[in-house]
């Protein structure tokens, strides 16, 4: 079995909105982060066993400016990631990192760290 997909539009959204006015998303849409520091999407991810997994985040950034976010698991130390320009809002790229999950339910939060907010976020895949 491949990675498990968790759509952003189905996750908990703080200061953002599920939208579908650009092309190329999976599921029913994507999350448009409000253009503020601290806007976030938080997924609840189930892990059958504790340990490291690959987290792939799919995003679009139609501006020319990086939209960095801090990725935190269960409120722990965040890892900062850049989400640079993808060319336009219909063009999606993926960013991959390794995160450590505990057995059972885990909260994975991607928080915008600049006043521009985050990129548009389609989904995460865990596998
Ligand atoms: C545009 C675009 C949105 C995007 C926003 C932004 O309004 O249509 O999808 O989220 O710019 O800059 O964050």
From TrEMBL:
TM region(s), chain numbering: none
Residues in CBM6 domain copies: 4-127
Superkingdom in the source lineage: Bacteria
Family listed: Belongs to the glycosyl hydrolase 2 family.
Protein name as catalogued: Fibronectin type III domain-containing protein
Species this chain originates from: Nonomuraea guangzhouensis
Residues of the full protein shown: 958 to 1084 of 1084
